[in-house]
Write a structure and sequence with these properties.
The complex is a heterotrimer. Chain A is mainly α. Chain A has a single domain, classed as MetI-like fold (Orthogonal Bundle), CATH 1.10.3720. Chain A is built from 11 helices and no strands. Chain A is flat. The relative contact order of chain A is 0.12. Chain B is 39% helix and 23% strand. Chain B has 9 helices and 10 strands. In chain B, helix 3 packs across helix 4, helix 3 packs parallel to helix 5 and helix 4 (118-132) packs across helix 5 (147-159). The two termini of chain B are 33 Å apart. In chain B, 44% of the residues are buried. By secondary structure, chain C is mostly helical. Helices cover 80% and strands 0% of the residues of chain C. The chains are: A mainly alpha, B alpha/beta, C mainly alpha. Chains in contact: A-B, A-C, B-C. At the A-C interface, helix 1, helix 2, helix 4, helix 5 and helix 8 of A face helix 2, helix 3, helix 4, helix 5 and helix 7 of C.
């Protein structure tokens, strides 16, 4: 239920004495932050981490191409995982609108997938599933558990989207003669879907972050490729830092996209109540 | 004979304000004597709300002076808070604190700002709520009250601070028609008791009944100033005439509020 | 291995693991909450460098994958001659990441406060600090109970990072990987941990709903 931006109206126009005080504290804060930055840079310099041997390979095209391949696999896993979690989540969401038994099972499954850490699912696919005879590739060993882990959240997001579509839409569709099924798929769900796009993008970010555990199942994603580079060039800090920054940037862009879409929806009057802040709260 | 103090309660001298490129207050000068009820009317965008809000510095001005009892209003800090404690303000959207009961709304400021004892503040709050007619709503939260009840509670909240002057920024504009009268009655009572008031409103009949002076604003300027009888029966400026005509046409067929 | 066999052999370890997970969750959430408040204060202050710092902090820690952060802390920091014990690294990761989300939730909570409330407080003569204490903080906190409940559950899920480093005692995820690599735990081993996680999440969720219903602000 966002209204305005508190930063805009928390403070009133400052008088002269307040302005002076703000200027002074701003100066102190700036100095403090610069000192902090200086300490960090100093530590890098003292331990020799600025040496060329830790950074020269970043000038090579092959380095970036290799990282890019890893990133591509990461994105592939994230998108595939999200797509599967969307399908599963859709089923679970539908389940909640059915009879008592199905609704109970759906509620249970949603709670289950939301309450169990993704790592546990990953270990399940890594350690237990192969013993049953089904041996999925490394790619699926990371994608499937991430998908399962996310489907509960997606189901809830879709449900709040469906609930946010005005009841009148379904009623109008039914009174025009559409069947309940048709009314849902042609009228209600398309609108619900548009509402929840920002949440789905946010969930994509979470899935992407979960795929970093691909090293557990030895899948060649960005993290794995980083490890290979490290063993090649013996430059752990610099490479991991760069990789971390890549992850942060990609996720930041996705989140910004999600917020941008949500913002434009809000402006054109189509928002849903943000009951599902849980999507964004996932570590 | 003249029982009004020589220093005006509120005084504005050549006040100017720009909002970006917009000249929202143009050379506004005005004074309100103790016990006087001044009503400001005018079309939207005329600056009347801005004028009202600049008196307790919710809006800043670019030049000119605003004085309360002869002293210029402070610009910041504790002094400004002290000034605001002496000026009561009633908002168009009531602005009762949503997370507290109505009673706590009233006692908050007297306890925190005037340092009153809790018990004393409570008793006085209940008396004030009785006076405005919402005593039975004291334990409820604002969302449970109707608009008219909320606004009356908001008036009680301001009164609890024993203000020297009360500002009303379109107090009934956000109310459903059937609740406007109850709020206007409370305000009229206050006027009768001698409270110095500056009221921005669209309620013409109310203005006629209650005001000592009517001020017509348009385009950021004070265009005309007169007693209500003279103003409403024979406005001097063309703009005021046009404005009243447009309201009249609007009002035809709408129940008058008095 | 059957359920009863598993319990007799590893029952004590499971109990320890549950306590470890609970402990980590509680400590991390408390730490995340404190840091979240500090960061929010910085982001809301009128001091621009602090605002920018707070915003960058949030963007870094809400977007960085837990595994990446943990690896940086455990394996990369030593190159800067900062060697931290395993449990400190895990706790740092499980505090830093939720702290960013905590700040986001607090900001959202503050954004639900209509400007009129602030103006009314001001016009009654309340000082800035009085206004923060009596109006802003209560309304922000009471509006953010449900997101904070979700965050507590998310923190619990994040503590599974402990399984990635040789931390003792093991947490609920670490113990499953241990049992399945040193023994044959099968599905049962997973189910026990999963159920323990779920029950904790369920209880947290219910408690949060109850609190929210009590303190929710009607507008």
């Amino acid at each position: 239920m966002r209204t305005g931006n508190i930063r805009d109206y928390l403070y009133e126009s400052p008088g002269p004495r307040t302005r002076k005080r703000i200027r002074i504290i701003t100066g102190i804060a700036l100095l403090g932050l610069l000192a902090l930055l200086g300490l960090i840079v100093r530590q890098f310099a003292v331990t020799g981490q600025f040496d060329a041997k830790y950074w020269y390979f970043f000038a090579k095209w092959t380095t970036w191409r290799f990282l890019g391949q890893g990133l591509l696999t990461t994105l592939e896993a994230a998108l595939t995982g999200s797509a599967i979690s969307f399908a599963l989540g859709f089923l679970l969401m539908r389940g909640k609108f059915q009879g008592k038994l199905v609704r109970g099972i759906s509620t249970f499954l949603i709670g289950f997938t939301r309450g169990v850490p993704t790592l546990l699912f990953i270990y399940f696919f890594f350690l237990v599933v192969p013993k049953t005879g089904w041996k999925p590739s490394a790619f699926w060993k990371i994608t499937l558990p991430c998908a399962v882990s996310a489907c509960g959240v997606v189901a809830e997001a879709l449900r709040s989207g469906v609930n946010a579509v005005p009841a009148g839409q379904r009623e109008a569709a039914l009174s025009l003669g559409l069947s309940e099924r048709r009314a849902f798929y042609r009228i209600v769900f398309p609108q619900a879907f548009r509402f929840v796009i920002p949440s789905l993008i946010a969930e994509l970010v979470i899935v992407l972050k979960d795929t970093t555990f691909a090293y557990v199942v030895s899948c060649a994603d960005l993290m794995q490729n980083a490890k290979v580079l490290i063993s090649n060039y013996d430059a752990m800090l610099s490479i991991y830092l760069v990789v971390a920054v890549i992850y942060i940037l990609v996720n930041y862009l996705l989140n910004t996209l999600s917020e941008r879409i949500a913002g434009s929806q809000r402006r054109s009057g189509q928002t849903i109540p943000e009951t599902n802040k849980g999507v964004a709260a996932h570590g | 004979m003249d029982n009004h103090s020589p220093v005006p309660m509120i005084e504005l001298r050549h006040v100017e304000k720009y909002y970006g490129g917009l000249h929202v207050l143009r050379d506004v000068s005005l004074s309100v004597r103790k016990g006087e009820v001044v009503v400001i009317i005018g079309p939207s965008g005329s600056g009347k709300s801005t004028l009202c809000r600049s008196i307790n510095r919710l809006e800043t001005i670019d030049s000119g002076e605003i004085l309360l009892e002869g002293a210029p209003i402070p610009q910041e800090g504790k002094k400004l808070a002290e000034l605001r404690a002496r000026i009561g303000m009633v908002f168009q959207s009531f602005n009762l604190f949503a997370h507290m009961s109505v009673l706590d709304n009233i006692t908050l400021a007297p306890v925190d700002v005037l340092k009153k004892g809790k018990k004393e503040a409570r008793e006085e709050a209940l008396q004030l709520l009785e006076r405005v007619g919402v005593r039975d709503q004291a334990g409820k939260v604002p969302a449970q009250l109707s608009g008219g009840q909320q606004q009356r509670a908001a008036i009680a909240r301001s009164l609890a601070m024993h203000p020297k002057v009360m500002l009303f920024d379109e107090p009934t504009s956000a109310l459903d028609p059937e609740m406007i009268q109850e709020v206007l009655n409370v305000i009229a009572e206050l006027a009768k008791e001698g409270m110095t008031m500056l009221i921005v409103t669209h309620e013409m009949n109310f203005a006629r009944r209650v005001a000592d002076r009517v001020i017509f604003m348009d385009g950021g300027q004070i265009v005309e100033e007169n007693t209500p009888d003279r103003f409403f029966s024979n406005p001097e400026s063309q703009r005021a005439r046009d404005f009243l005509h447009s309201l009249h046409a609007d009002c035809e067929g709408r129940a008058f509020h008095e | 291995m059957g359920f009863s066999d598993l319990l007799t052999k590893y029952g004590a370890e499971y109990f320890q693991a549950l306590l470890t997970t609970w402990r980590l969750t509680a400590v991390s959430f408390a730490g995340a909450f404190i840091i979240g408040i500090l960061i929010t204060v910085a982001r809301v202050s009128p001091i621009r460098p602090l605002r920018i710092f707070g915003d960058i902090y949030v963007q870094v820690f809400r977007n960085i994958p837990g595994a990446a952060l943990l690896i940086l802390l455990v394996y990369a920091l030593p190159y800067l001659q900062i060697v931290l014990p395993y449990d400190v690294c895990v706790t740092a990761a499980t505090i830093l990441i939720p702290s960013a989300f905590c700040s986001e939730h607090l900001m959202s909570g503050m954004n639900t406060i209509p400007p009129g409330q602030i103006e009314a407080a001001r016009s009654l003569g309340l000082t800035f600090l009085q206004m923060i204490r009596r109006i802003v903080i209560p309304q922000a906190l009471r509006s953010s109970v449900l997101p904070m409940t979700n965050l507590l559950v998310a923190t619990m899920l994040t503590t599974s990072l402990a399984s990635q480093v040789p931390m003792r005692p093991r947490d609920l995820t670490g113990i499953v990987s241990y049992i399945n690599t040193h023994d044959t735990g099968g599905v049962t081993a997973f189910v026990i941990s999963a159920v323990l996680y779920c029950l904790t999440a369920f209880v947290i969720g219910k408690a949060g709903s109850l609190v929210d219903r009590k303190v929710r602000i009607l507008r």
